């Protein structure tokens, strides 16, 4: 079985990037429909419904902001019967919350992509409840069309995985900016620093992805003993500075997910 008809509720940055990826991977635009109360057109000429459609779909992809869940849940529920799987990309919204809102669904999936799905490079974290083996396979296929499928067998680590793989691009973009800002602080023209930082990260990550060496080994291959790179690495490694900073960063993002899961009052 494959998901042939998917209704998207909340067609924004994230679900738009997912559709870009699915279309690039060969899906036909007719596979997707969008439900939005005010939009008349969306990218790629997908069909837009301004009211809840009286139709059935293999899957509903929920992509509104988490704070908007209860604004759409009551209207959407009648569309999600025993033939429809609920796929949610909402950060900090648990499977139990999805089950409560859409109790009759064929199954519930937390599907955590990142924006690189638009180029087929998203590590997609997945957690499900209620799926049979065939439907779980269909979700795996859907994820693999836009990157990789990483199933979690327990929801406990979902917020941490979201912080790492979903929010991660935000942290990497900040790192690229910071590299460029550092070089600018030291005298390089800003535009040139940004160009070099971005091209360097692109090349370094592409190489790491296809190298037989781990990132730790690659760092050693760059650093000549007593040379320039080692001096720079010593700054990052001093007292575990970089690891500590990134642990704090991931902890803050992860814990925000748990806070959001407690309910609308916690959603800032
Ligand atoms: N942006 C990212 O990199 C990632 C976002 N996510 C999740 O994706 C979800 C959406 O985030 P973004 O795409 O960044 O936000 P966004 O603001 O770009 O998208 C939300 C969309 O929902 C639409 N919307 C609002 N009310 C609606 C309604 N009543 N009916 C139908 N559509 C409605 C908005 O017009 C907008 O297009 C969030 O829950 C977030 O946690 C998950 C992973 C990564
Ligand atoms: O910032 C957020 O809450 C969402 C979840 C992962 C990426 N964006």
Automatic annotation (TrEMBL):
SUPFAM superfamilies assigned to the protein according to its UniProt record, in alphabetical order: 6-phosphogluconate dehydrogenase C-terminal domain-like, NAD(P)-binding Rossmann-fold domains
GO biological process terms, semicolon-separated: L-proline biosynthetic process
Chemical reaction(s) catalysed: L-proline + NAD(+) = (S)-1-pyrroline-5-carboxylate + NADH + 2 H(+); L-proline + NADP(+) = (S)-1-pyrroline-5-carboxylate + NADPH + 2 H(+)
Primary subcellular site in the record, as a coarse category: cytoplasm
InterPro entries the record matches: 6-PGluconate_DH-like_C_sf, NAD(P)-bd_dom_sf, P5C_Rdtase_cat_N, P5CR-like_CS, P5CR_dimer, Pyrroline-COOH_reductase
Keyword Calcium (UniProt): no
Pathway given in the UniProt record: Amino-acid biosynthesis; L-proline biosynthesis; L-proline from L-glutamate 5-semialdehyde: step 1/1
EC number(s) on file: 1.5.1.2
Domain Pyrroline-5-carboxylate reductase catalytic N-terminal: 5-90
Keywords linked to the UniProt accession: Amino-acid biosynthesis, Cytoplasm, NADP, Oxidoreductase, Proline biosynthesis
Binding site for NADPH: 50
Cell location: Cytoplasm
GO function terms (MF aspect): pyrroline-5-carboxylate reductase activity
Pfam family, one: F420_oxidored
A GO CC term assigned to this protein in UniProt: cytoplasm
Start and end residues of each Pyrroline-5-carboxylate reductase dimerisation domain: 155-260
Function according to Swiss-Prot or TrEMBL: Catalyzes the reduction of 1-pyrroline-5-carboxylate (PCA) to L-proline.
Family the entry assigns: Belongs to the pyrroline-5-carboxylate reductase family.
UniProt-listed PANTHER family: PYRROLINE-5-CARBOXYLATE REDUCTASE, PYRROLINE-5-CARBOXYLATE REDUCTASE 3
Name of the protein in its database record: Pyrroline-5-carboxylate reductase
Organism placement in taxonomy: Bacteria, Pseudomonadati, Pseudomonadota, Alphaproteobacteria, Sphingomonadales
Gene name of the encoded protein: proC
């Amino acid at each position: 079985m494959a998901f042939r008809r998917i209704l998207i509720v909340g067609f924004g940055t994230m679900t738009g990037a997912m559709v870009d990826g699915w279309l690039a991977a060969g899906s036909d635009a007719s596979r997707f429909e969008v439900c939005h109360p005010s939009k008349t057109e969306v990218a790629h000429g997908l069909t837009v419904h301004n009211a809840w459609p009286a139709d059935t779909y293999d899957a509903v992809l929920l992509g509104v902001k988490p704070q908007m869940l209860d604004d759409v849940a009551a209207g959407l529920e009648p569309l999600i019967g025993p033939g429809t799987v609920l796929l949610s990309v909402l950060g900090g919204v648990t499977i139990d919350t999805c089950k409560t809102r859409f109790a009759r669904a064929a199954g519930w999936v937390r599907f955590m992509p990142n924006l690189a799905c638009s180029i087929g490079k998203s590590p997609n974290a997945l957690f499900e409840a209620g799926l049979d083996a065939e439907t779980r396979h269909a979700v795996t296929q859907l994820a693999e069309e836009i990157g990789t499928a990483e199933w979690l067998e327990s929801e406990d680590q979902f917020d941490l995985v979201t912080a790492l793989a979903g929010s991660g691009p935000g942290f990497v973009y900040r790192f690229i900016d910071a590299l460029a800002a550092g070089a600018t602080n030291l005298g390089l023209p800003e535009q040139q620093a940004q160009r070099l930082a971005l091209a360097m990260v692109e090349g370094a990550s592409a190489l790491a992805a296809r190298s037989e060496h781990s990132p730790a080994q690659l760092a050693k291959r760059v650093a000549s003993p007593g040379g320039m790179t080692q001096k720079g690495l010593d700054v990052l490694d001093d007292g575990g500075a970089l690891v500590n900073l990134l642990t704090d960063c991931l902890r803050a993002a992860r814990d925000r997910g748990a806070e959001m899961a407690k309910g609308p009052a916690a959603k800032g």
